[in-house]
Amino acid sequence: MLELIRNPDYKYIRALALFYYRLVETSPAKVYQVFETYLSDYRRLVFREVSGKCSVLHMDDFVDTMLTKERFCEVLLPRLPKRHVLEDEQ
Q: What pTM was estimated for this model as a whole?
C-alpha cells in the first residue's frame, strides 16, 4: 500500500491508496507520519460529490480533510486523536 502512496505519477491512485490506508491503519502515529508528507502536494483532483456535482479539490485539502474530519465520502473514518495529544504522550 505504501508503494502506491509513494508513486508520484498517478495522483488518483495515490488518493485512493491514502483513503484506504486511513481506513485500515490502526496506529494513529503512522497515519500522521505518512499523511504529513502529502500536505505539500498541491495537485488538483476532480472530486465527485455525493450529489453528483464535480468540484476541484487539491491533494493537500484531501489529506487534511481525512486527518481532521470524522466522515469523508460519506464513509465514517476510524477515530484519530489530535496530533498534539499524540505528541504529549511521547
A: 0.90
